[in-house]
């Protein structure tokens, strides 16, 4: 689908040398334009994953306690926007001592049955400007506002799988990891390059960047990678449910679009999204044995000292 122009979102002088694009002139049209464009980048390949599990399941079941639920509710940031259920964080936080037993039962039922409530899988998407011409929808990033309660459960799961995945994600990954950043990413590359240049050598480097990487994750392939990483049982079923049958609608200029199905990707704005993304791209460089790499999420630098014309 060609990028759309949303001139009602931000007036911009017409440029006659550009190809004609569809134009939205009122808030409802603009919201639908954004949602249609964001949905157009999804992939829906009918993939049959045949890779066998590489390891026996290590994490299969989780059970949350009332103390853990109340602690998570009391730690909520009351300034966070509500999701599609419109239940504010302040209400959950101020009534934590009362609602904790019921919320704990709800969370444990979700974990034990391996299902995510359908209402939690509807995202209110807010377009966030990235760069380029503000008139065009392709220059905005979709940030999902999810129900606060669903993010509380995501937080609990993240806290319980974080240590497990820390031993799986390769050291050359610097995105979304505690103690790492774009600075450590640069330092790793510069240290290698500097050492090589000090010896009078040459370093060749290739830069890779995946377009719409978060939105194009194949759910079946990601589920298989979760299984290969040691996730199994009801926890794996929960992740399958979390990923599938999601829907999104765009809210902009005080109006909300119709909802559309989400057939790929992980929600940007979720708690689990970054970890799931890192797992998905983790094996990207497994075939590279002679080169070094430094990654920040999907931004990748592959570099190697050149010893001969055959390198």
TrEMBL record:
It comes from Paramuricea clavata. Coiled coil: none annotated. This is Uncharacterized protein. SUPFAM superfamilies: DNA/RNA polymerases. PROSITE patterns: RT_POL (PS50878). Pfam families: RVT_1 (PF00078).
């Amino acid at each position: 689908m060609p990028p759309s122009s949303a001139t009602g979102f931000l007036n911009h002088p017409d440029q006659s040398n550009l190809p004609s694009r569809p134009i939205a002139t009122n808030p409802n049209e603009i919201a639908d334009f954004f949602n249609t464009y964001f949905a157009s980048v999804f992939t829906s390949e009918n993939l049959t994953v045949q890779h066998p599990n590489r390891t026996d399941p290590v994490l299969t079941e989780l059970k949350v306690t009332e103390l853990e639920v109340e602690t998570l509710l009391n730690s909520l940031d009351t300034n966070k926007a509500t999701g599609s259920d419109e239940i504010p964080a302040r209400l959950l936080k101020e009534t934590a001592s009362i609602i904790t037993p019921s919320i704990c039962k709800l969370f444990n039922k979700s974990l034990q049955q391996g299902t995510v409530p359908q209402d939690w899988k509807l995202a209110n998407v807010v377009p966030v400007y990235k760069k380029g011409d503000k008139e065009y929808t392709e220059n905005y990033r979709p940030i999902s506002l999810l129900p606060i309660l669903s993010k509380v459960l995501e937080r609990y799961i993240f806290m319980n799988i974080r240590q497990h995945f820390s031993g799986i994600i390769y050291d050359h990954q610097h995105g979304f990891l505690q103690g790492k950043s774009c600075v450590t990413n640069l330092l790793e590359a510069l240290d290698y390059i500097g050492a090589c240049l000090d010896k009078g050598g040459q370093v060749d480097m290739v830069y890779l960047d995946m377009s719409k990487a978060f939105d194009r994750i194949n759910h079946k392939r990601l589920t298989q990678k979760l299984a290969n990483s040691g996730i199994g049982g009801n926890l794996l079923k929960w992740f399958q449910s979390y990923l599938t049958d999601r829907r999104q609608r765009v809210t902009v200029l005080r109006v909300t679009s119709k909802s559309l199905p989400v057939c790929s990707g992980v929600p940007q704005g979720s708690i689990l999204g970054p970890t799931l993304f890192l797992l998905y791209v983790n094996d990207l460089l497994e075939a590279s044995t002679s080169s070094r790499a430094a990654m920040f999420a999907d931004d990748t630098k592959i570099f190697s000292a050149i010893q001969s014309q055959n390198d």
